[in-house]
Amino acid sequence: MIEKLICIACPMGCHLEVDVEDDYRVEGNQCNRGVLYAKKELTNPTRIVTSTVVIKGGIYRRLPVKTNGEVSKKLIFKVMEEINKVEVSSPIKCGDVIIKNVLNTNIDVVASRSM
Amino acid sequence: MKQYDVVVIGGGSAGLAAALEIKKQGIDHVLILERDAELGGILLQCIHNGFGLKVFKEELTGPEYAERFVQELLEMGIEYKLNSMVTKLNPDKTIEYANVNEGFVKISARAVVLAMGCYERNSGSISIPGNRPSGVLTAGSAQKYLNIDGYLVGKRVFILGSGDIGLIMARRMTLEGAKVLGVAEVLPFSGGLKRNIVQCLDDYDIPLYLSHTVTDIIGESKVEKIVISQVDNFVPIPGTEKTFEIDTLLLSVGLVPENSLSERCGIILDKKTKGPVVNESYQTNIEGIFACGNVLHVHDLVDFVTEESRKAGRSVVRYLNHELNATNNMINVLPKNGVSYLLPQEINLSNLVTPMDIFMRVNKEFKNAEIVISNGDTVIKRIKKKHLAPAEMEKFILKDVDLTGDMIDINVAIEVQS
Amino acid sequence: MYDVIIIGSGISGATIARELSRFQLKTIILEKEYDVAMEATMANSAIVHSGHDPIPGTLKAKFNILGNRMYKQMSEELDIPYMACGGMVTAINEDQVHLIEELYERALINGLRSDEVKIIDQETVRSLEPNIADGVIKALHLPTTAVTFPWEAAIANIENAMDNGVELALENKVIKIEKLDRFVVTTDKSVYEAKVVINATGVYGTDVAKLVTNPHFEIRPRRGEYYVLDKDVRLVNSVIYPAPSEKGKGVIVTPQYHGNTLLGPTSEYVAFSEISKTTASGLEYIKENVAQTVQNIPYHKIVRSFAGGRATSSTEDFVIEESEVKGFINVCGIESPGLTAAPAFAKYVVEELVSVHFEMKPNTDYNPRRRKVLRTNELTFDELNNSFHDNQKYGRIICRCEKITEGEIVDAINRNCGARSVVGVKNRVRAGAGRCQGGFCQSEVINILARELKVDKLDIVYNKAGSNILKETTKGEQK
Q: Which residues of A touch B149 (CB under 8 A)?
């Protein structure tokens, strides 16, 4: 069976054709990331989650955050619930861990700027 | 009047990269004038990931990407002024700006870099029929309210235009608790990157209505409903109307380089890009005034802005070192069949540094086509492309070997393979 | 108990209020909207017409000429933008040449002086207007035509009236009027009493009149749609009218005081619910018609389109009279040239209609001048720094497109009849009126409004009650 995908590993947006029965053999990719993406997307799709948390004492009232790795697509809204509970205080440095090991995924939510 | 070697107008991705490059090449008196409260520009509100794959070989969010440049800028000791709005640029490279500390100030520069970025096309510029209630705003302003200030502008959202900011906002608002009912795109193809269709719309089951546009906005004080219709070559088809009950219509209908300063200074703009016409050195028609980033043409990726701005920065240094040859050995770079625009629009062969990147956009979608580059009528090279779309900026490289013999004009066209 | 209640705060109510404030009368303006001048005054061509067009003998003709002659002084006293740009009515064929010759005669009958109206040939037209359409062969030249800034005209009149003691009650929609020995006017918020009531409610004129009288006229809303071109487009120097038709003055090209160009209006009777809707067909109609008078129109420079309703009376003239109910005065059917005529008919209303009910003692404290508005756009570099040294807020530019400073916005909020919405700020100082239409400055305007009005940002509205821009905070954070 051939699955058609658009690779989201980078902004190139390669049109992939994936032969699921042939160990997810990929055509149409321009780099190896496409191969990895195709297999993962068709077995356990994952995404980076970006959002904000409440920050006190900063120049703005929200601090942007991101997961420092991809989490399962199914967990995105659960991760958002965790993110929405957090409140931090300035100063924060870019990369500071905001939520350690969110939902036992081994992924942290980290600050994506200093404030 | 204070004198600078270079004044960079705008401290976003373009201005930061250009200023850094200029300083690194040994020019000391560089000043960045930034109208916002921080350096970084629109990157600061683009909190999603997807930046930096080319420049840093890793995937960053907008604020992270900006912070790396700002850090370097601070380390290099480049002077900048925040909350400082340039009110006037003159052809003699004097500049007027204002801020709350200094009032209105005049300075002069040996060279100026335009890096003012762009603004969003809005409900005014696209003349949507219907009422003018609240709740109709550009995707970028909603993004700022959401990501910087922490406010949702609505809970039931429809998005007109499939530009990247609109797609990104569909996902952002969904994650923050709004219901996004759909995205309409007047063209038969999306204006955004394909990855954003997948990860912002498909991931959240948000429908994309291609060849559709908003044909009525209903609501007195706030938007209550919109009607979308299918279009045939921009003309709405009667009987195809769909009504959505919403409290917010976001517009993601394109970006326009912000050139009111440049225009009043007498800088010639390209009708297609709406940015200055520049030569191989990113110099405008006014000597010593350069342009880079989205003020020049709207880019898909900040990485391209950075690369372009670094090159512009290097040209500025060559100009200051009197290495740019003013003698006119100019040829044009001309868009032909299938090409919307090319950049730069002119090449002074005496100043050309090869290999030279030429950026371009096509004017419609092509499959299995070739970019055909000619000198006059003589084909220099053909580049095969499986897929070309107006939403995706293309780049090709001119090398010394491409530019031998009598150069006339460089013509670029798209040919579809039969 | 008031002496006079004015219902409506458009240009009619505004100019009448100021006229009344010259006398020792206790006056209040009742306005149903969140701000003043939200209807017809908000959506029109901004033209101070010369008076060449109305049919001789009508109130329109009478007050147009008088109003035109009063405008400059009023604008000086109230610091309202005024641009004496002149105008011309163009002819593209021999039939239209006859029409403008008739208009020439009409203009003289209406009272224009012979140096205020002239027929000019193609060459002269071209020299005055480089972008005039090739087909234009003659024109009626009208040097007394001018352009104002209609919202500011209304706002300045009300501000000055308030400075002189008039009250303003916004968000008060009149729902009942009883005539006892006095009038008892009930709104959705409160009850007001007065000896005299003036109905200046524009397109709602008949509805309000019917609350207490049997009007002999019917007001119907006639919609006009417009395009606005960016301010860097200097398309025309003067107001360019087509030759008139049964549809009125036709699609006009009007230079605006701040540099924009207005194309429009259309003319179409519509239901009340449709007044402010723009349509694809209407905007197409503008493009088609305007091509007959002006060429080289850069449609890619459109910054906005809008529509507004004009109060057209079944009598085909202004209705400015005391009704059969003594003390209830109708100022209705104020469509074009109402903006021009307003200062003149306001004087008439006060001196001829209101005066019979009161002993008209002059208000000895009356000051005809409004405190000057500091417009940084109009200042030289040195003047800019002087204003900055007086107030640092004049060094902080909020609106990038129109170069409007925080100082100007704060001033617009804190005056009498001050701004309290985002559109209110835009209508007073033009922050957000430029090419980005507030895309960059709206959030900062909201910040300033919230700070100055001492309310939460969530409570700041766009233009009307309930039009809040920010719906809620994220993360469940409380106000």
A: 60-62
Sketch the domain layout of chain C as residue ranges.
84-144+220-312, 376-468
Could you tell me the CATH number of the domain that includes residue B354?
A: 2.60.40
Q: Domain count of chain A?
A: 2
Fold category of C84-144+220-312 in CATH: D-Amino Acid Oxidase; Chain A, domain 2 (3.30.9)
Fill in the DSSP letter of residue A41: H
pLDDT tens, residue by residue, A58-102: 999 999 999 999 999 999 999 999 999 999 999 999 999 999 999
Among C59, C52, C244, residue whose Cα is nearest residue C144 = C52
Which residues in chain C have their CB less than 8 angstroms from residue A61's CB?
A: 477
Structure tokens at B120: 């969003």
The answer to whether residue C357 is catalytic is: no
Reported as a pLDDT band with limits 50, 70 and 90, residue C479 is low
C376-468 has CATH 1.10.1200 classification: no
pLDDT at C361 over 80: yes
- Which pair of structure tokens corresponds to residue B318? 């060559």
Please tell me the distance from the alpha carbon of residue B395 to that of residue B391, in angstroms, as a whole number.
13
Question: What average pLDDT does the segment C228-246 reach?
Answer: 92
By Cβ distance, the residue of B123, B133, B145 closest to C470 is: B145
Selected residue of C458, C474, C475 to mutate for chain A interface (largest A Cβ count, 10 A): C475
In chain B, what percentage of residues exceed pLDDT 90?
Answer: 83
User: Does residue A58 share a domain with residue A26?
Assistant: no
pLDDT for residue C141: 98
